[in-house]
C-alpha cells in the first residue's frame, strides 16, 4: 500500500462477528488514486496526485457489519490537494532575435 492519509472508524452495537466492520470505496475513485484497508479503514494514496489535473477528490466510503444480512452506512470524504512548486519557469519560445 501507499502513504496513509486518513483512518476511518465505524462501530456496530452488535456483538461478536456481527460487530466486525469492513470498509470499501463505493464511489469517487474512478482514477484508482486511493485504496482502503478493508479491516482497518485506512485510506492510502496509491498513485501520483497532480493539483493541475484534479484539485479535489470526493470519495464515498461504505462500512458493512458482519451480520446476516449485513447492514451498512456510508460517508463522504473530501480530499483537497495543496499545490506545490512542481513546475519550472518556461520561455514562450526557444530563440529570441533582437536588432539593436
UniProtKB/TrEMBL annotation:
<keyword id="KW-1015">Disulfide bond</keyword>
<keyword id="KW-0732">Signal</keyword>
<dbReference type="GO" id="GO:0005509">
    <property type="term" value="F:calcium ion binding"/>
</dbReference>
<dbReference type="Pfam" id="PF00028">
    <property type="entry name" value="Cadherin"/>
</dbReference>
<dbReference type="GO" id="GO:0005886">
    <property type="term" value="C:plasma membrane"/>
</dbReference>
<keyword id="KW-1133">Transmembrane helix</keyword>
<dbReference type="InterPro" id="IPR020894">
    <property type="entry name" value="Cadherin_CS"/>
</dbReference>
<dbReference type="GO" id="GO:0007156">
    <property type="term" value="P:homophilic cell adhesion via plasma membrane adhesion molecules"/>
</dbReference>
<keyword id="KW-0472">Membrane</keyword>
<keyword id="KW-0245">EGF-like domain</keyword>
<keyword id="KW-0812">Transmembrane</keyword>
<dbReference type="GO" id="GO:0009653">
    <property type="term" value="P:anatomical structure morphogenesis"/>
</dbReference>
<keyword id="KW-0106">Calcium</keyword>
<dbReference type="InterPro" id="IPR002126">
    <property type="entry name" value="Cadherin-like_dom"/>
</dbReference>
<feature type="domain" description="Cadherin">
    <location>
        <begin position="2"/>
        <end position="91"/>
    </location>
</feature>
<dbReference type="InterPro" id="IPR015919">
    <property type="entry name" value="Cadherin-like_sf"/>
</dbReference>
<keyword id="KW-0677">Repeat</keyword>
<protein>
    <recommendedName>
        <fullName>Cadherin domain-containing protein</fullName>
    </recommendedName>
</protein>
Amino acid at each position: 500500500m501507499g502513504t496513509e492519509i486518513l483512518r476511518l472508524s465505524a462501530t456496530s452495537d452488535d456483538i461478536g462477528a456481527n460487530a466486525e466492520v469492513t470498509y470499501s470505496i463505493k464511489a469517487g475513485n474512478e482514477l484508482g488514486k486511493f485504496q482502503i484497508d478493508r479491516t482497518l479503514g485506512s485510506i492510502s494514496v496509491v498513485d501520483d496526485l497532480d493539483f493541475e489535473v484534479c484539485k479535489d477528490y470526493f470519495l464515498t466510503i461504505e462500512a458493512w457489519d458482519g451480520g446476516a444480512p449485513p447492514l451498512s452506512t456510508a460517508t463522504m470524504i473530501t480530499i483537497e490537494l495543496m499545490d506545490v512548486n512542481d513546475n519550472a519557469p518556461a520561455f514562450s519560445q526557444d530563440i529570441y532575435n533582437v536588432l539593436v
